[in-house]
């Protein structure tokens, strides 16, 4: 019960950190009962992180064919990443300068900046009046949410700023809290994908994209290295003719930090379409 038990505890502690207590217990006990030989090992479940902890990949893998020696596996990935807010992030331009910085508006603004500014102010004023009307459904909904116990103090403060801005004649004052909120909000992106890996050698599995992306014109190569629960995966992007980006590599590993300090006050949930 000395060294053998200590090794079991160490493995169990690592498993808890990666997958949680219930799953870790089954894996750890399985390790005790059925020690797999090196030649039999293949990835089954793992969780890896980007260098800064902003992204994670969680994968479950199963053999493509039922053979005593597994040399191909299908891995289903869930990719989670945080997108930072930027100081100039806005979907509502409040000035000609901000509109000029938006590629979708720049050409229109350049044609007649004064006309654009007048039309912008009129449009913002119309939205403000519609919201601030005492009978406005949107205003009534927000006034109700202010009193809701599940709404946090920062969100309540934001709602209160909107209501208070109704008394100001300048429509820009009404929209400024919305812009500030956007610049304090991180996007949480979640997408899923599947890769079929072939075994290159012990502890190394490869996936090579056969044809480049239709729009990106980039080939992707994934390399998976490790064993047990402790894996590292790299994505290498190889531009082909006509591609606009340069070669790049991204690495996710179990060794990287698992926590990330967000530079924002709110999180917006986003889902990447398949």
What keywords describe this structure?
274 residues, alpha+beta, 36% helix, 29% strand, elongated
Notes on the structure:
This protein is of the alpha+beta class and 274 residues long. It has three domains: 35 residues, no CATH class; 134 residues; 88 residues, no CATH class. α1 runs antiparallel to α2, α6 packs antiparallel against α7 and α7 runs antiparallel to α8. The longest helix has 20 residues. The chain is elongated, with a radius of gyration of 26 Å.
Q: How many helices does DSSP assign?
A: 8
Question: What is the β-strand count?
Answer: 9
Q: Overall 3D geometry?
A: elongated
Question: What summary fits the major beta sheet?
Answer: 9 strands, mixed
Q: What proportion strand?
A: 25-35%
Could you say which structural class the secondary elements and strand pairing correspond to?
alpha+beta
Along the chain, the helix and strand elements come as HHEEEHHHHHHEEEEEE
Instruction: Tell me the domain tally.
Output: 3
Poorly predicted runs = 8-34
Question: Can you give the helix content as a percent range?
Answer: 25-40%
Mean of the pLDDT scores? 84
Can you give me a brief rundown of this structure?
This protein has 274 residues and is of the alpha+beta class.
């Amino acid at each position: 019960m000395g060294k053998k038990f200590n090794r079991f505890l160490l493995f169990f502690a690592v498993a808890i950190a990666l997958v949680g207590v219930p799953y870790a217990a089954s894996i750890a006990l399985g390790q005790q009962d059925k020690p797999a030989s090196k030649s039999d090992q293949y990835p089954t479940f793992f969780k890896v992180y980007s260098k800064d902890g902003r992204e994670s990949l969680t994968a479950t893998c199963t053999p493509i064919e039922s053979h005593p020696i597994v040399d191909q596996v299908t891995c289903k990935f869930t990719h989670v990443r945080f997108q930072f807010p930027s100081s100039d992030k806005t979907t509502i331009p409040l000035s000609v300068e901000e509109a000029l910085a938006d590629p979708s508006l720049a050409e229109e603004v350049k044609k007649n900046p004064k006309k654009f500014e007048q039309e912008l102010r009129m449009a913002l004023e119309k939205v403000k009046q519609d919201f601030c009307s005492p009978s406005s459904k949107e205003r009534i909904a927000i006034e109700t949410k202010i009193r809701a116990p599940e709404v946090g103090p920062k969100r309540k403060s934001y709602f209160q700023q909107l209501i208070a801005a109704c008394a100001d004649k300048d429509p820009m004052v009404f929209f400024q809290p919305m812009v500030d909120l956007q610049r304090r909000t991180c996007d949480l992106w979640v997408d899923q994908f599947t890769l079929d890996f072939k075994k290159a050698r012990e502890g190394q599995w490869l996936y090579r994209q056969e044809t480049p992306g239709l729009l990106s014109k980039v080939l992707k190569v994934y390399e998976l290295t490790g064993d047990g629960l402790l894996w590292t995966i790299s994505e290498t992007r190889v531009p082909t003719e006509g591609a606009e980006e340069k070669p790049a590599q991204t690495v996710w590993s179990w060794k990287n930090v698992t926590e990330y300090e967000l530079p924002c006050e709110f999180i917006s949930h986003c889902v990447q379409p398949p």
